[in-house]
Amino acid sequence: MPQDNILANILPSLANWWTAIVAILTLAGFALFLSGLLKLANQGRGISFGSIFLTLLAGILLINLPAFLDSLALSLFGEGSVQSLSYKAPDHPARFYIQFAVYLVALVGLVGIGRGLILLKNSPERPGLMGRALVHIFGGILCVNLVTTLKFMAQSLGGDAMDIVLSIFG
Fold first, then answer.
1. How confident is the model at residue 155 (pLDDT cuts 50, 70, 90)?
2. HEC string for 36-68
């Protein structure tokens, strides 16, 4: 099929996007960390300690994003977060489509985690942001670990759901 050839050519280039997004989020983490240090130096000027702490925390977590992803995956699923772009779909008629969808969802999840950490930085000034930040972080980790999430949900539902998920994701 011509579509299979197109997707087979696109899939390896998606790994470059993963690396680029991690690099951008790491740079954002350095900026947040430096911003937190500047806020700490100017603490006497009406800046709350909670704001400083969350800015430093968000910066540190963004700088250490791969380790943060692993720790969240270990907490949620009891297994490390294998980089999602190393996933190879089993022999299935829609193998390329499945793999492309998994990669795309993982990239969106990675961006969601970054957005959640940046929202976390602003949460002391705006009370409603803490919940949104946590939802972005939690939803992002579920998206980054999509295959594990779906297998976990299928095991919880059992029966036909388990058979369907295992037939698609192996």
1. confident
2. HHHHHHCHHHCCCHHHHHHHHHHHHHHHCHHHH
Structural domain of 31: 2-169
- The pLDDT of 152-168, averaged and rounded, is 72
CA distance 153 to 162: 8
Residues 6+ apart with CB under 8 A from 139: 109, 112, 116
The predicted model scores a pTM of 0.78
- How crowded is residue 27: how many other Cβ atoms within 10 Å of its Cβ? 12
